[in-house]
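Exercise: predict the fold of this chain.
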Amino acid sequence: MSFFWSLLIILLVLALLTKSGQHIKPKWSVVILMMLPLWFVRSFVDGQTVADVPEYLDIYSSMSGISYSDIITGNLHLEYIEYEKGWLFFNKVLQSFFPPQQYLLIIDSVIIFLAYAYVIKKYSYLPWLSCVILLCTIYPQSLFVLRQHTAMAICMLSIPFIIERKIYYFFSIVTVAVLFHNTAVVFYPLYFMSSLAKNKKFYLYYAILTLILFLFASFFLNKILDYSLFTKDYMYYVERKTSYGNLTGSIIVLFKICFVYYFLRPNLNIDGVSKILWIMLLISFSISLLNSTVPFISRLNQYFSYCEILLIPLCLKNVRHASKPFLVCGIVIFYIALTLYYSRWTQPYMANMKLINFLEL
């Protein structure tokens, strides 16, 4: 956890030095400066010291012996079958220009954090707080779950097109994400849900649908799924079924929903990015309920859980009284506590984590 505390301190110091909390529309230089520490660690981590990453690096190195036509036709060795074509193409192109393995992490991190920087620059009320929440939530997992977090970052770029109702641009971007990780298909329905009115009827339908899905998953889905159909990535979650069956994640998301509802009052016909993020939070709650009974559903929730990176700071925009600093402090402490809570499962993946020797790059 030493890297986490180091990054947290750096972010808080940068927040004080840049006074970024005073900028509703922050400068690019401020946002990039906030992102640099997170990008640096993910780019220059020693891949051999983090679980899952060595396999990604081996695949990257072996791209020199694979042609583009092999990727298109699927004429690949068995170990490549589980990787989406978009990810293999991405590896092939990078490896052609930058043969050393470390460049996979460097360039992939550029894509991910430029996407975060874009949405934070465009929508965040407090960019430093968005970066802190990012660090305390999905950042640790991004160090070893490369494909999905790349797909998540690409999906974020589609948010402006949901607001502008440009369906072709939205579907094009999400389709690119699906080519990187097939779980990104779960992001498609967001476009249609965002057009629904936010009234009592909407919330009634939402509650009924969530209840039906939960009951179906609890009593039928686990019994009829043939888990042998899934790749080893998903079998891992199936084998960890004993770690599911509790509602802790749902309770945490429900707490966030109450917080957001109090400050944004989404029943008063909010629009723009706030509306999209609110729907994402509701979807995250529904999926967290399903995750309590169905393995591997947590992988899908990642695409919606990052909404809080923008949504929580937007809530503070409506706070005008003198208690605002204490509220901000409380939010930071809450997310640090979440990191400590979830670190018990991320820590084994990064127990031996260290940075590379730059002389060998």
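Check your answer against the key: The chain has two domains: 1-186+340-361, 196-318.
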